[in-house]
Each structure stands twice: as C-alpha cells, then as structure tokens.
Amino acid sequence: MLGRKTEGTSGEKSRKTFIWIRRGVILLVIATLIAGGPYAYGKLNRIRIRLVGDYKAKQIVAAATEMPRPDPTSETGSLSPILGTVNRLLQDAPFTDVQGKAGTLREYRGQIVVISMTSIGCPVSKKAMPALARMGTEKKNDRVQLLIVNPDPGVKAEELQQHAAQFPGWRYVSDPEGKLTSALSARTTTETFVIDESQTLRYRGALDDRFDVGSVKQSAEFHDFLGEAITAVVEQRKHFPQVTPAPGCTLTSDAPAQPASDVTWHNQIARFIQVNCLECHRPGEAAPFALETYEQVFARKAMIETVLEDKTMPPWFADAAYGHWRNARLVSEPDRLMFTAWIKAGCPKGDPIDEPTPLRWPTGWTISAPDVELTMTPQQIPAEGFIPWRIVPVDYEIKEDLWVSEAEIKPSSPEVVHHAMLFVEYAKDDPRGANQTHGEKGQGGGSEGYWLSYFPGRKCMILPEGRGKLLPKGGKISIQMHYNPNGTAVEDRTVVGLKFLPGPPKQAVISGGVVKGDFVIPPNSKSEFIYSKRFAEDVRLIGIMPHMHSRGAAAAAYLQHADGRIETLVDVPKYDFDWQISYEFDEPMLVAKGSRIVIKHAYDNTPENPDNPDPTQEVRHGNATSDEMMINFFEWEPAGPEPEKVNRNRPFE
C-alpha cells in the first residue's frame, strides 16, 4: 500500500509538533496584522488553514497506512471467490417442481432463465415476496422464464403449494436435497441468478438494495440490480455489477468444481475472453489486435497468459483490497488458473453446442442517439515521433443552460488516441465558475473545467435517471487530445455526442479537480507529496481519477469522515500513465461536511523509471508531458441545493 509507515511517531511528539505550529502561526498573524492590516490577515488565514491541513493530512495518512489491509478474497471482497462463478457455463442439474413435473436446467437452452432462491421461514425472503410476485407478471414471456427454488427440507406438500401460490408466473421448485442449489452455488435464501440462452451465468446477487437482514430501505429510490441484469442479458450486452451481496438466511451449498481437463474453448474460455477482452479487442476499437475467434486467441495464448499473470490486462491498477467499483476489471484467481490449465491441456476446442451467446457491441454511438454532434477540426497524426498534447477548441455556442444526461467522446482513429478529456470553461461573469482559471494554457477553466474523459475501455457517460451534468450558458468547450503514433499516419476527427434533458434534473452531477501545484521533484530522486482539502458541504462522491504524467509512480486517496473514521478510498500502488482510469464507486458515497480528503502521490525521477524523459531535470507542475501534475479529478453530487443553483466551485473550504 502506498505510504506504508517505516518508523513510528509517538502521540506525545505529534501533540508537541502541533502546539509549536499553532504558536508560530499566532505570532506570524500578530506581526502581519501590525504591518499589513486586514488584507494581510486574510492571506495569513489561508496560510494557517494550509499548514494545519498539511499537518492533519500527514496524521490521516499515517493512521490509514497502519490499518490492516482488508482481504480482497473474502466473501465481501472485490476478488471474492464467487466472482469466479459468473460468466461460466453452468453444469446441468435435475429438479422437480411442486406440480410433480421433472425438469433440468438444460431444457431451458435457448431461453433466458431468472432464478430466485426463497424460504418459507426466512424473514428476508418474506420481505422480497411482493417484489418477486410483481416480477412474475411483468418479466415472464416466451424468451424469459422464471424459477423459484426453495431448498427448505421437510416441508409438507400442502405448505409448499400454498407458498407457491404467492409467486404467480414463477415455476416453483422444491430442492430439499440441494441439487439445484449446489449447481448454482447459492449463498443465501434471497440470491437471484440470470442465465442466458447458452446457459451462461451472467448475474448473481440481490434482487435490489431495499432488503437487508433486520431492515427494509425506506426510500422510493432503489437500485434494481436484477431488473438491470435481465435487461442487459435480453439486449446481449455487458453490464455491471455482475455480482452483488444478497442479504438473507445463509445456505450451505458446495458446487462440484469443474475438472481442469474438462475446460474447453466453447464451454468456458470463449466466455472468459468475451467479458474480459472483447470490449477493446475487436475491429474498430483501440486494441492493436482482435481476440474474437479461437484461432486469434490460440495465436496469442502465451501473451494472454503473461499479462494475466502480471495483471497488466485487463487494465485495472487499483488495489482490490479497497473499495467496490462499478467499472472494476478484475480477474479472479479461479479464472486465471482456468485459462492456464486450458493452455497446459493443449487448448481443446470442445463441443460447439456449448459456445456462448454472442454479446452485442455498439457499432455507432454507445449512448442513445445524440441531440447534438460536435466535430473537432481534423488532426493529422504522423506515423512516428512524440506528439505534445493538443488543445482543440470546439465551435459550439451554449445559448442557455443545458443539462446533459448522456455524452460520448468518439475518435475516428481510436488506435492512436491515448486519452481525451473534455473541458468546459464558464463565462467570466458567471459566479458559478469562480474557481476556474480562465484562459489557463492547457485547457479552458483549468482543472476545475474537467467535464468528461475518454480512454480505451471508457467511452461515454450515461447518467442514472433523474441526474444531469451542466453545460453553462456562455461557456466554452475544448478537448485535450493525447495521441500515440502507431506506425501509420492517420487523420483523426473526434466527435462529441450530447443527449440533453428537457430541463433541470432532480440531481446535478459535477466534475472537478483537487490540484497541488507547488511541488518540486529534484533530479535523480524519488519523491512523495501530500495534499488535503476539507469538505464545506455534504456531497456524494461518484468517482475519482488520479492524474500524473510519466514520472508518476503511485497514488492514493484517503478520507477522514466528520466523525473521525479514516478509510482508504483508492490505492494505486503502480500508476501507469498509459491508462487514465476513473474509479467509479458502485454506489455514491455520502461524505459529510467537515470530512477531509487527503491525496498522496509518489514520483520516480530516476533512471530506474523507463518512462522518465530526463532524470537529470528538476520537475515542477506543468501541462507538458515532460512536466508533472498532481491532480485528482472527482465526480460528485451536491447533497443540498437545487440543480439550477449549483455552484461549480469545489465543495471544499
């Protein structure tokens, strides 16, 4: 973990240090007031806030790094073994329904099957009954079949019939011997499953987020996990999350592991490649080669095994021990071992009848048909050489406040686009953009103008219903393009698509950055810097994106809640400038006024860093790739004002 402590600091020493800092600041304020009056006092007060903030930031980092590292492979961790059960071909299992009719999972091949566990005596199962009953009338059709599985032993037939009557539209299965329960590796009596036409398990987890052991969420808004998964499978597209916790009464089910010798291209490996690789490794996308067929994967099997082993692919650099992310690209240990075992077995093809249902990838816009398409001026990209980033103004007059629900940056030559960032600069007389740096070289509005990003694997923004992001009246749009030549000269005409809301949303979504610009990295050295800000209002954090250049080595963000609790938000122990990844929380995180966020970045300006352009140079903040940056871009929702009154200023003191 970044910043692990190497030497202890006693509480007494810390207390004395703080006392001396406070005394020094008081003396400085008195002297300055005598010499300079109120103006000087304001300036000194800002210095005081900074000094105290820096001191507290170091304390927070020290406390966070002393905490035990959570186990990501635990039942609730980001690399829970249960992750290795999704996107797998399910083994067949027999069952008998309450009508006495025998069946098997395989009989549903060619249809989508939704399965929900239940129990007559489990109180959480009882709370979910009305929602499941509604689903039976809303979701069942010729393509989607519904099964309720009750693993309770020793229940009388009459009682089972009465319970089954509570679930119209569902085929009710009694499974006292646990055959179907074990085939599903079911964990609780409320867990639900979505299985596609090729018998691939595509989702497992909660019905929604309303129910928990001992409580029901008292809110009209909830996350419909199962409904979203069903829609995604019907539309044959990838979705997140694929696994969620399912609060309920615990079940014991030991599914038989599939022998490594039985793993084939058609029954498992094609599914693994489909969900982990094809988003980029297909024609017209950023990856340099396709992995759509057995032959293509076979030809690169050694390389795939290598990048899985060193965890450079799929691209995801955050420590899995911290946070739950809706866009996580994590490969479970069972999946990695499965791929290795397949190679050692000679890469068998298997039976084509087991091949997965293909996912449908967008061929045009990923978002809905945009209301506006903004085309950037053509950019000529040479076949080779270093290209400084380019700032390209977009000719679009924002005549009134516009609220955007969907947006997408679409390069015409994605194979040479390292990343792209869209910035929005408020009009100079708009008080909502008071914190922006107008006309800053590099992008309109400075880091506070950050609005949207594109990088391989992240193309667009699709906000939940009722949310929108503001394009302010009189604002200016520009795109920062970072190109990497690939040996062939091309022209790029990047287009931005925008989908508007008819008016202000229920909830505004805001992007911006926390920046430290007063650092100096000496030549031939490794350096660490800490920076913090305290929240001046309640917010809900949506995502965080650390940003450095080629000397960036590691990044972390910590949060001290207003009640004193300290947690690690994200830890990137090996930062990679080639991947500008935004880490998106699976659910917005409520942060109370008075909480303090701490940013810690590490830099390697030595010859040991192969990406270092020149280790003999002193490095400061700057826009060029040969300079450095210490920025964390955030997306958040204000917890307070109406959307049209939202101030773009950072929610910090």
Through-space gap between termini: 28 Å
- Return Rg in Å: 27 Å
Annotation, overall tally of beta strands: 31
Overall 3D geometry? globular
Helix content: 10-25%
Q: Strands of the biggest beta sheet: in what spatial order?
A: 2-1-5-4-3-6-7
* Overall mean confidence score, pLDDT: 83
Strand content: 25-35%
Class from secondary-structure proportions: alpha+beta
Separate helix tally: 9
Query: How many strands, what sense, and barrel or not for the largest sheet?
Result: 7 strands, mixed
Residue runs with pLDDT of under 50 for 5 or more positions: 1-10
Give a topology summary:
Elements: H1 11-66, E1 94-97, E2 102-104, E3 112-117, H2 123-138, E4 144-150, H3 157-164, E5 171-174, H4 179-184, E6 192-195, E7 201-205, E8 211-212, E9 215-216, H5 225-234, H6 265-276, H7 294-299, H8 301-309, H9 333-344, E10 372-375, E11 379-381, E12 390-394, E13 402-410, E14 417-425, E15 450-454, E16 460-462, E17 467-471, E18 476-483, E19 490-492, E20 495-500, E21 507-508, E22 510-515, E23 520-521, E24 525-534, E25 539-547, E26 552-560, E27 566-572, E28 583-591, E29 596-605, E30 619-620, E31 631-638
Parallel strand pairs: 3-4, 4-5, 17-21
Antiparallel strand pairs: 1-2, 1-5, 3-6, 6-7, 8-9, 10-20, 11-19, 12-18, 13-16, 13-17, 13-20, 14-15, 14-18, 22-31, 23-30, 24-29, 25-28, 25-31, 26-27, 26-29
Helix pairs in contact: 8-9
